[in-house]
Amino acid sequence: MKVLVAFLVCLALASAFKFAPVPEPNPFNLKFTPSGRITNGQEASRFQFKYQVGLKLLSDKGTFWCGGTIVSDRWIVTAAHCTDDINAVNVYLGAWNRNDKTEEGQQIVFAGKRYIIPHEQWDTVETKNDIALIKLPAPIQFNEYIQPAKLPKYRADKNYKSYVGDVVTASGWGVTEQGSQPDILRYIEKPVIKYSSCNRYYFGNIVDSQQICINVSNKESTCNGDSGGPLVIEEDGEPVLIGATSFGFVLGCQ
């Protein structure tokens, strides 16, 4: 029997939002867990996800790892809960093997706290507006290793596509199984399901139309440890960012 697991991503770009650097508590007390570990996914090829970044987050409690997405030469999108109580961040650009500092094309950019901007309405209780921006101190020089993902086209009526039934891609460097941390970037490709179905299966009424729920099976999923990474769909041969990994079902990642 296949094990069915879901993870959630904020539909980060489906509506206008404001940001302010307001620290918030971490949402680990919920009946679901911040998500992002690619469990039993596939190994990415060297140039497959040029928009992917790794975030080594620095706090008084230690260091933490999250993912993020390049959307312009100065801006990274990630999850707000990744930035709770964070003092600074090292942004890994152009990385495939994140632990190989001599890797061709890999750059590590330091950004202080003032460059970390969580959504001003980030709600740790209901996990709403779980999105943040990181502004890089200097513009990225795009090259064969580093490129941005596109954003969905703006709609004045806010009537954005639900993506239900579409196959989307999530990627990251999180643990592939309990205790095993990969060096190489991994990914999964899974269909979007209705948020009402996601609530029925997993979350009660926590998910709404501003969030996207992914149906993951075959023991392939995301899990705790690498939140904030990209959820991308391909349109006209180009990657379009539609969300950032936010949270998943507490009873297991596989």
From TrEMBL:
Residues 1-16 form the signal peptide. Keywords: Disulfide bond, Hydrolase, Protease, Secreted, Serine protease, Signal. It holds the Pfam family Trypsin. It is found in: Secreted. GO terms for cellular component: extracellular space. Its main location: secreted. The keyword GTP-binding does not apply. The keyword Mitochondrion does not apply. Residues 38-254 form the Peptidase S1 domain. InterPro entries: Peptidase_S1_PA, Peptidase_S1_PA_chymotrypsin, Peptidase_S1A, Serine_Proteases_S1, Trypsin_dom, TRYPSIN_HIS, TRYPSIN_SER. PROSITE patterns: TRYPSIN_DOM (PS50240), TRYPSIN_HIS (PS00134), TRYPSIN_SER (PS00135). GO terms for biological process: proteolysis. GO terms for molecular function: serine-type endopeptidase activity. This is Peptidase S1 domain-containing protein. It comes from Megaselia scalaris. The lineage of its organism: Eukaryota, Metazoa, Ecdysozoa, Arthropoda, Hexapoda.
